Every structure is written in C-alpha cells, then in structure tokens.
Amino acid sequence: MSEAALGRFYEDGEVIVRQGEVGDCMYVVQDGVVEIVREADGHEIQVGSAGRNEVVGEMAIFDRHPRSATIKAKGRARVLTLDKRNFLRRINEDPALAFRMVETLSRRIRLLNDQVVALQAQLDQRDG
Amino acid sequence: MTDTSAAPPDSTADADAALKDGSRIAVIGGGPAGSMFTYFLLDMAERVDMRLDVDIYEPRPFTKPGPAGCNMCGGIVSESLVQNLAVDGVWLSSDVVQRGIDSYVLHTDVGSVRIATPNDEMRIGAVHRGGGPRDVTEAKWESFDHHLLSNATERGAKVISTRVEEVGRANGHPTVRVKGGEPVSYDLVVVATGVNTSILKTFEGLGIGYQRPKLTKTLIREYYLGEDVIAQTVGTSMHVFLLNIPRLEFAAVIPKGDYVTMCLLGDDIDKELGDAFASAPEVRAIMPEGWDAGAASCQCLPHINIHGVEKPYADRFVFIGDSGVTRLYKDGIGAAYRTAKAAARTALFEGVSERAFRENFMPVCQSIHGDNRIGEYAFVLTRIAQRLRIMRRAIIAITRDEQANGRRPRLSGVLWDIFSGSAPYSDIFRRMFDPMLAVRGIAAMPGVLVSTIRSTELAPGPFRHSDPGTPEVKA
Fold this sequence. Notes:
The complex is a heterodimer.
Chain A: E1 8-10, E2 15-17, E3 25-40, E4 43-50, E5 55-56, H1 59-63, E6 70-83, H2 84-93, H3 98-127
Antiparallel strand pairs in A: 1-6, 2-6, 3-4, 3-5, 3-6
Chain B: E1 24-28, H1 32-47, E2 53-57, E3 76-77, H2 79-88, E4 97-101, E5 103-108, E6 111-116, E7 124-127, H3 144-154, E8 158-160, E9 164-170, E10 173-178, E11 184-185, E12 188-191, H4 200-204, E13 214-224, H5 227-232, E14 237-241, E15 248-256, E16 259-266, H6 271-278, H7 281-284, E17 298-300, E18 303-307, E19 313-314, E20 317-319, H8 332-349, H9 354-360, H10 362-387, H11 389-404, H12 410-420, H13 425-432, H14 435-454, E21 472-474
Parallel strand pairs in B: 1-2, 1-12, 2-8, 5-14, 6-21, 12-20
Antiparallel strand pairs in B: 3-7, 4-7, 5-6, 9-10, 10-11, 13-16, 13-17, 13-18, 14-15, 15-16, 19-20
Helix pairs in contact in B: 1-3, 1-8, 10-11, 10-13, 11-14, 12-13
C-alpha cells in the first residue's frame, strides 16, 4: 500500500466509527478490509466486512440515527471519508449516483436474509 | 459538410431519437470527459439491459511520455470528484494517484499558512494526465487518462486511434470520417475534444448553433526533484501563491511522484512570467537548496475554457468537458465528470434529440455556468488581496488565529474551497460575506496594522516546510 495514496490508513483494530456515535460521513474502502461489529452486552459480534471499493457507514447518512455498529480495520486498511453534504448535493443533481448505494443496500439485505435463514435453521435444529 | 436532411433542427421525432439495442455512438476525444461519458453510458445501459456500440476516436497514446501522450493540465482530481468517483466505484489506485494531497499552503510575501484536511486524510489526487514529462525513462505510474480510457474499453467501447478529419450530417444522422476513410453514420456524436484542437472549428460550420468557448492561456511546467526530495520539501501539500507579480493571477505548485507541477493563470501568460514566478523568493523557499528554476523537464502553454458554450447540444450532438461548459479556473476534470454523466443519463433515459438535451443536460451546464459568474466576483476579491498587502496580512492573521484559538474555520474553509475547487462558488461567496468573518477581520486589524508598520523595519521570513512555527489550520 503506497503512503501517497488517497484516504487515510487505519492500523489493525483501529476504529473508524464507533457504534452509538452521531455520524455525518460514510466511507469507501480503498485497500484492505474493514469489519463491521455490533457491540451488545459487552460482546462483539461481527455482522459483516467490506473490501476494496465497498461503501460502509452509509446508513447514518440516510436514516440520521446514531451509528448502528462499529467499523474497524482488519489488518492495515486505507479508507476514504465521504462527506454527507457533498454526497447529498451531488445526488440531487445526479440521481444515478444512488445506483450503487441501492446496490450496496440490496446486497446487504440479501446477506441478512441468508443469515436469518441460517439462524432459523439452527434454532429449528436445536428445538427439534 | 453535407446536410441532406430536410428536417429543421428541432424536429427529430422523439421516438426515433431514443437509443435502443444496437444504437451507435461516436465519442470524439478519449480524455476524461469522453472516457467517463462512455463508462457511465455503458454502465447504465447494462442496468437496463441495453447493448450499445460506442466508438471512441482518440489518436493520442496516453501511455507515452511528453506532449504526444499528454492532455496538458495541472492534474488535480478535486476533493468532491475523488468522493464521487469512489461512490461510482471508479477506483483510483496508487499507481494512478501520484500523490494524495492532505493540505494547502498559502504563500504570500507576508507569510504562509497551512490549511489541512479534517482527519489529516489524503483527500485530493495529483495525477499525470499522460505518460509523464518529456524526460521520463521509466514510468512508475499509470496515466490518469489511460486509466479512465481502459475503464471505458473494459465496458465494451472500441478505441479508434485515428484523427477525425470531418464531421457531417446525412439523412438526419451525424457522420464521422477519418483520414482516408468513408463517412460513418452514428445515432449520436459526443464531442469531448477539449479546446486545444482545431477540430472544434468544424462544428461551427455544421449549422447546429455551436460556437467555440472563450479561451485563455495557462502555463504548466514539470520539474524533476525525486520522490525523497519532494517528501522533505514540497511534501504532501499543494502550494498556492498570492503574489503581487504583474500579469499573474494565480499560481500553484503540486507534488506528483518524482516531479512537481507548476501551474500559472494570468493575463498574456508566457515563458517570462513563468520565469518571474519561479524565481520569486516565496517559490524558492519551498524548493530544495540549489534548485535550478531553468531546468524544467517539460513545459506547455495550453488553452483553458473561461466562458462556456451557450448551446452545447443539438439534435444527436452533445458537447461535454472543456469543449462545452467547464468550471472557471478550477476542477476542470470535475466539470468533465458532471457534464459527461449528465449527457450519458440524458442520452440513455431521455433520448438524443435537441429537446432532450435542452431539458435534461443543459440544466447541469447552466448550474456550472451560473456558478462561474459568481466565481468571477470571488476571484476579483483574491485579485484585490494580491494588490493589497494589508489584506494579505489580514488573511494570514485570521487564518492563523482560527487555528491557534480553535475557532470555527470560517476563513480557512473559504480558502480551502477556493483553492481546491471543491464547493460551488456561490457557496464560497456567501461564506466570504459571513458577518462573523467580518468581525474576525476587524478584531485582527490592530495586529495587522502594527505588523504593517513594523514591516518597514523587518523583512518577512519565507516559509520552509520544516518550519515548526508554521501554523496548521483545519479546514
């Protein structure tokens, strides 16, 4: 990873955003991997991960709720910050900019559906 | 030029003027505007299951060093464009971005001030448009224009590496002819030639209402310093200069891999003005000891568009990037992105008739155009600052004060946006007249007046990158 490249480097385990914070940015991974973890009752549960070119942290921009999860670097990662203001202004002029966001959200819903099915199967197995 | 079509200009039936499976599109010019148009058109066409044939006419080999492969510009990918491309999924590798820029340093004869990005992040990209300066023996990077053109060809576009000789119209459709070839008919011709070409004149004779934009000259020089020397001197900052040199309006020094690029804007720009700027003490202060201002690796005097085209569209024609409407002085690649994408969206979803472009593409051009008029006033103010030493002192004093006392970055933010071209000029102009900024100006005046009186006794020290006293201000 070149030091001269775009974005900022985060070292392994370094937090990019923390669950519960109010956010006005989203992020695009430029190199490496980031993991998305949910903190509950003192435990951390990994709910996803993202690699190069993937958008993370976009929910806080659209639903204006506090961050639903913590995002941190898994290994060394290079991440670019995107400002809410610039992004929303650009979507206003260029709705096509939203295509990839919708794609990202769709992909995530698919993943969640798969997880729900897998969890349900586990529960059925345990109960049955 | 041939026009055998009996139809008046605005009468292309909308049904016929919609792109459909197998429609043919010619893109003249494979620089950022042409490549981005193609990339987004083919990307969106795929989403709606449409197959289009796109020919990009581009004779330049962008991988070649020197003028043969270069589209001659400062090579800055603005903060907002970096972010938009990231959302669009256009990844810029560290081979393309020669240097991430994390700060601006404003230099004046009365001091310097560094304005950094929030979070110390590299948010602006410095790129080489072609294969690099003339004396490059081994290119360590990928040309920005080549990278974007490759993205377009990966989406299925074909590159025709021949110069276009004639563009005409036949049976209501545009035609393109290359040297020694027959005219080829297209459903749409996209003109993305930039302004440094004679072919634009061709379109004025076509009877489609196109008139070339108003131009001015710029000067761009590349100096070889080597990556290590750059890290110790110019660093990861873009250096901008507000100097009272006759005819000079704006100047910047941009680090890029092994080179630094010097960009000058002004009246009747020529080599002498370049030499005068390069020998200014404020410039020498950021360059390494013993630097030879006469040893430039490459120099060019390209034109830029300073007043966009009034009607950058016609039936089955659209003009994007510099050959249509662009942003005044700044962020030309960002404007190419905006007009390219607006043209692609219009062509695919609204059609290629004059009406479709007028209603859907022109509003984006008008927004850039209107903002440029406001930008002209913003630049009048920087011109005044260039002439008035007291104003330069005030700018430096207020910006330093904002940092030292952790105040809201009112002036730093304005300066950042003027230099980076990241925000619309209307937004910058409004913030220039923020009453709180005026209050800060008045508060800074006693100090400014004292230092103005003292300056008759003391000469100001030039900025050094290692100078620990150089204040840093967050934008």
